[in-house]
């Protein structure tokens, strides 16, 4: 049986382990199941509990902690850390709101991380082994591997299945850097074990993870250098987004090294190079956030006749693998590696595998949000994606400094853009940069899912004053606010 350790060994981490991988857990003897789900993260738990609720006999296997990366090493602890950092930042802005502190706010990093671990343990209770069992799922803990096209083995127990879903998630990618040794750097799986604030933090990676944690640690008091190989922040979002976040980071004192690649690390120094310059960055902690890869290497997929592609398990548009009895969901196969994408694809995989729904994954409208301040959210067709797909779109925009609630709250840095299919007015996508973009983007996701026109958004009554009014204002002013779409 796998031994699970979380550092530090405090009451919160002990609770997380007891909930996600009870040390005294004894697996059943195995048997025959309608469905076996590999992986106990958000995708796996969704697949397993959905099938159990439908009356199927279901087994779910998990090698590490139920709740997966999201609860234990990703969404939950990172957002708890970001919230503390934002509170510190807001306290430093008192003069803007008419109050004054006798001294600048002082961060108690130990207390911050204690809160992070406490919140993680609370969140993990919803995804605990006991919760899955109460939902009708038979849980097996330990290493899982396929032994035949319709069977897996977990710690010596044989589970035969009619259908299976692979939802084993993903692991952090560590780039090849000379001198970099395991244990001498942080990833999302180890950064939340810190108990002391690093005086100097170097972050490698300019995507969501790197940007979110670089800003959080800077606000908590670290000196932060961020290294990104692309010449922009958040390179998968629209270019204006990265430029706005770049300006905010520089205002907050984050030192950016964009267009640089890390080439050598050791003795508290990172050497980075661009096409025409070399820089040496000192650090007390080095955080790597350069992407994720599917966690499928140890499943013995060959024994099941399941093919693997570059991004993970190879599936068709219905999430079925090369073995017609095995489906895959979430990070193990899906390029959009978000918790909500894992949950959505897991539901779809179950509908297709057990109910014959025959629904393609392309029908899913998956938004995403990066939880910097301001937050960045996108959904549907944006100019970059529209160009790749050869789709003509129109763009309509309103800046947040034209929205009363935004400047009332001192959160007017940002903008909203709605993209429509040219000639039809049907809402096709959106980009939103706002303090609470993640809370707001679902309105546009609903509109796109239901193929609504701008007129429907214009006619929807919004509370005043709210920042969500930005969408209605865009719709109401669509004519005069139309902007050129970059080609």
Automatic annotation (TrEMBL):
What SUPFAM superfamilies does the record point to? FAD/NAD(P)-binding domain, FAD/NAD-linked reductases, dimerisation (C-terminal) domain
One Pfam family here:
Pyr_redox_2
Output the InterPro entries linked to this UniProt entry.
Answer: FAD/NAD-bd_sf (IPR036188), FAD/NAD-binding_dom (IPR023753), FAD/NAD-linked_Rdtase_dimer_sf (IPR016156), Pyr_nuc-diS_OxRdtase (IPR001100), Pyr_nucl-diS_OxRdtase_dimer (IPR004099)
| UniProt protein name | Mercuric reductase
So what family is this one in? Answer: Belongs to the class-I pyridine nucleotide-disulfide oxidoreductase family.
Pyridine nucleotide-disulphide oxidoreductase dimerisation domain: which residues? 366-473
Q: Where is the FAD/NAD(P)-binding domain?
A: 33-344
Output the Gene3D superfamilies linked to this UniProt entry: 3.30.390.30, FAD/NAD(P)-binding domain
Would I find Flavoprotein among this entry's keywords? yes
The cofactors required by this protein are: FAD
Q: Does the keyword Flavoprotein apply?
A: yes
Per UniProt, the keywords (alphabetical) are:
FAD, Flavoprotein
